[in-house]
Amino acid sequence: MARSRYIREVARERMMLLYKYSLEEARRGDLGLARRYIEIMLRIAGKAGVRPPKYIRRGYCRRCHTPLIPGLTLSVRIRGRGKGSRVVYRCLECGWTRRFMIKASGRGSRRE
Asked: Which neighbouring-strand residues pair with 60?
């Protein structure tokens, strides 16, 4: 029990570190190395049976494993109005798209 918890902890730390390194390499312009870091991170997650945190899951392209950095490797658009509004992410390397619904921000969100 304690050993498996330790393995998951170490795996999470490694995943966060590799994700950070991949962002740094992508900003420097070495997308090949950045993709490699993401692939290693995903392999560690699979072996340890750990799900990456949400910011990491949304931070790379599912098709080409490129780290998503707005303006560099990612295009961000807001589509729709009202309840059907969504944010659209598009990878500038391979064209992969992902959509996220925008939640209403509570009671004061409706204007009358």
From this structure: 67
Binding region: 61, 64, 91, 94
Check: CB of residue 82 under 8 Å from CB of residue 111. no
Residue ranges making up the domain that contains 90: 2-109
**What does pLDDT average to over the chain?**
91
Please count the other Cβ atoms lying within 10 Å of the Cβ belonging to residue 84: 9
| Number of domains observed in the structure of the chain | 1
Q: For residue 33, give the amino acid letter.
A: L
Element (H, E) at 39: helix 31-48
Phi, psi of 96 (to 5 degrees): -65, 140
Output the known binding site for Zn(2+).
61, 64, 91, 94
**pTM of the shown model:** 0.83
Q: Which structure tokens are listed for 12?
A: 């999470």
Tell me which DSSP letter residue 60 carries: B
What confidence tens digit (pLDDT) does each residue in 60-80 have?
999 999 999 999 999 999 998
> Six-digit token pair at 3?
């050993």
